[in-house]
Specification:
4% strand, two-stranded antiparallel sheet
């Protein structure tokens, strides 16, 4: 029981921190939630949370996010003016990855999640804070610094987990990071929050775990 309380407390803590920034900068507040959720999976694994409980919690949270889209109860979760379903896609991708890899291959699950949380999250912040060359893809603005941040963050995640998995560095690490960076460019309606973690985890499982 204590394990579940600790997980709930962690989520509550992230929400409180994000709320403190909500009046000053809505984007930073959202990114705090986006990035803060990342460590939740390894924490839950360490606390021996079982797969069914993780699926139940993620499923309930996905339903609550959907309700929030309809009734706009908690604006901090998603900036509805951007016509993005990113948070919902985020939850759905996490549900699928928990189902696929929670017990079978946790490193693949963490790889996809960390690439999404840290790579995409930091890319969004860096891209907005620092001016650099930019371009438009499907009406979504992308920047050079943001894209580089996504690639480097993804590469660090994959190299770290990949080395833990196979005790060496492999060219496939570069391929996974490149794919994640490419898919992150396709961010219409927040679909990258689904494509990036799912594709990254599956590729990690195939190219690293099962090589």
């Amino acid at each position: 029981m204590l394990n579940y309380i600790l997980v709930i407390f962690y989520i509550f803590l992230i929400s409180i921190i994000a709320q403190r920034f909500s009046n000053e900068n809505k984007e930073i507040s959202r990114k705090i939630i986006h990035i803060g959720i990342g460590p939740l999976i390894p924490i839950a694994h360490y606390l021996k949370i079982d797969q069914n409980s993780a699926l139940l919690f993620t499923g309930i949270f996905s339903i609550l996010i959907l309700i929030n889209y309809i009734f706009r109860l908690i604006p901090i979760i998603e900036d509805v003016d951007r016509k993005s379903f990113g948070t919902l896609f985020y939850c759905l991708s996490l549900f699928i990855l928990i189902f696929l890899f929670w017990e079978k291959d946790p490193n693949s699950l963490i790889a996809g999640l960390f690439i999404m949380t840290f790579g995409d999250g930091l890319a969004g912040l860096i891209g907005k804070v620092f001016d650099s060359k930019s371009w438009i893809i499907f009406k979504q603005k992308k920047s050079l610094y943001g894209t580089l941040t996504m690639f480097l963050s993804s590469l660090i995640v994959v190299c770290t987990l990949g080395y833990i998995q196979i005790n060496t560095f492999d060219i496939s690490f570069l391929a996974i990071a490149s794919l994640a960076t490419l898919l992150e460019q396709l961010s219409t309606l927040g679909i990258d929050n689904f494509l990036v973690p799912i594709s990254s985890s599956i590729c990690f499982n195939i190219l690293v775990t099962n090589q």
